[in-house]
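To the wet lab folks,

You asked to see what we're planning to order before we commit. Fair enough. Below is the target structure as C-alpha cells, and below that is the sequence we designed to fit it. If anything looks off to you, flag it before the synthesis order goes out.
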C-alpha cells in the first residue's frame, strides 16, 4: 500500500518530532516510527468501515421512507441505486475485511454515527448523486465511478471528518492524504471478480521497504550531528533558522541516502525530497534544498566518494 515516498514522509515526520528532544533511546523512537506506519493501515480500514456504514445507511434510509405514515410518490418508489451499489456491496460483504475491522475495533461509526449522517446527507444533496440516479446505465463500472467520485469530492475533503480523525489519532491528520490516495488506487483496481484479499493489501510492498524505513530513520538519527555539520559548510549564506526547520531534516535524510544507500541514485533521492519539500515545507524550500544537494553531489563526484551502484531503488 505504501511506496518509498510515503515511507520517506513518515520517517521525516518522526525525525522532526524528535529533533528537539534530548532522548537517545533509538529503539523507542524506531518503534514510534513503525507504530506510526502501522496506524496508517488502521486509518485505511476506518475509511472502508465508513463506506460500509454509508451502505447500511442507504438501506435504513429507504426503509424509513417506506414506513412513513404519509408518503409522497417519491417515498413510495425510492431510488435504490445507492442501496444496490455493487462496489459498496463488494466492500460490505467482504468477510476478511469486516473481520479485520472488527478485530481491530475500528468501526467507530456505531458510536459516532452523526458523521455518517453528515456524509450521507452531503451525498444526497450533491450533483454527483443526482447524475448517478438519473443515469440509465446500471453496471459495476458506473457504480464504481460513483463511489470514487463520492470519495474524492465529498468524503476526502470533508472538514468535520478531518476533525474527527484528528481527535481520534493526531498522526492521522498527516496520514490522510497518503491513505486517501492509496484508497482511490485500490478502489479503481476492484472488479466484481476480485479476490477478498484485494481490499486488504500488505502495508509494505515487500520486506525491503520495511527495512528501508527502519534503516533510513536509524542511520539519519545516528549520524544527525555529522550530517548537520556537513550541511552547515554549504549553507553559510542561508538563515540558520531554515536549517533548524523541516528543511534541515530533509537535507539530513537526503545525505543519509547519498552516503548509506549506495543503490539509490543521487537523482532519485534529490527528486524525492524536492517533491516532499513542495508538499510539506515552505514555498522556497525546494529551491533551497535543490541548491544544497546539487552542490554536495558535485563535490562527491569530483572527490570520487559515495559512489552509487546497482540498478537503483525507488
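Sequence we intend to order:
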Amino acid at each position: 500500500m505504501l511506496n518509498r515516498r510515503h515511507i520517506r514522509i513518515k520517517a521525516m515526520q518522526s525525525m522532526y518530532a524528535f529533533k528537539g528532544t534530548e532522548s537517545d533511546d533509538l529503539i523507542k523512537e524506531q518503534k514510534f516510527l513503525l507504530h506510526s506506519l502501522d496506524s496508517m493501515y488502521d486509518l485505511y480500514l476506518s475509511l472502508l468501515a465508513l463506506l460500509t456504514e454509508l451502505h447500511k445507511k442507504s438501506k435504513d434510509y429507504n426503509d424509513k421512507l417506506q414506513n412513513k405514515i404519509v408518503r409522497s410518490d417519491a417515498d413510495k418508489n425510492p431510488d435504490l441505486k445507492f442501496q444496490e451499489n455493487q462496489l459498496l456491496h463488494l466492500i460490505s460483504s467482504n468477510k476478511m475485511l469486516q473481520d479485520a475491522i472488527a478485530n481491530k475495533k475500528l468501526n467507530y461509526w456505531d458510536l459516532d454515527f452523526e458523521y455518517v449522517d453528515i456524509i450521507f446527507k452531503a451525498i444526497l444533496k450533491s450533483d454527483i448523486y443526482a447524475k448517478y440516479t438519473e443515469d440509465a446505465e446500471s453496471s459495476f463500472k458506473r457504480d464504481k465511478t460513483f463511489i470514487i467520485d463520492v470519495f474524492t469530492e465529498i468524503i476526502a475533503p470533508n472538514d468535520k471528518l478531518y476533525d474527527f480523525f484528528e481527535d481520534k489519532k493526531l498522526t492521522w491528520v498527516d496520514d490522510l492524504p497518503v491513505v486517501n490516495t492509496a484508497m482511490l488506487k485500490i478502489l479503481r483496481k476492484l472488479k466484481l471478480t476480485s479476490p477478498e484479499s484485494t481490499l486488504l493489501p500488505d502495508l509494505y510492498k515487500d520486506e525491503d521497504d520495511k527495512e528501508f524505513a527502519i534503516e533510513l530513520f536509524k542511520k539519519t538519527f545516528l549520524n544527525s550531528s555529522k550530517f548537520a555539520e556537513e550541511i552547515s559548510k554549504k549553507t553559510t549564506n542561508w538563515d540558520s533558522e531554515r536549517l533548524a526547520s523541516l528543511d534541515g531534516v530533509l537535507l539530513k535524510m537526503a545525505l543519509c541516502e547519498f552516503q548509506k544507500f549506495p543503490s539509490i541514485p543521487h537523482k532519485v533521492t534529490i527528486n524525492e525530497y524536492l517533491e516532499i519539500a513542495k508538499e510539506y515545507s515552505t514555498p522556497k524550500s525546494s529551491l533551497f534544498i535543490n541548491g544544497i544537494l546539487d552542490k554536495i553531489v558535485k563535490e562527491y563526484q569530483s572527490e570520487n566518494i559515495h559512489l552509487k551502484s546497482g540498478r537503483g531503488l525507488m
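Structural context that might help your review: DSSP finds 16 helices and no strands in the chain. The mean pLDDT is 89.

Thanks,
Computational group
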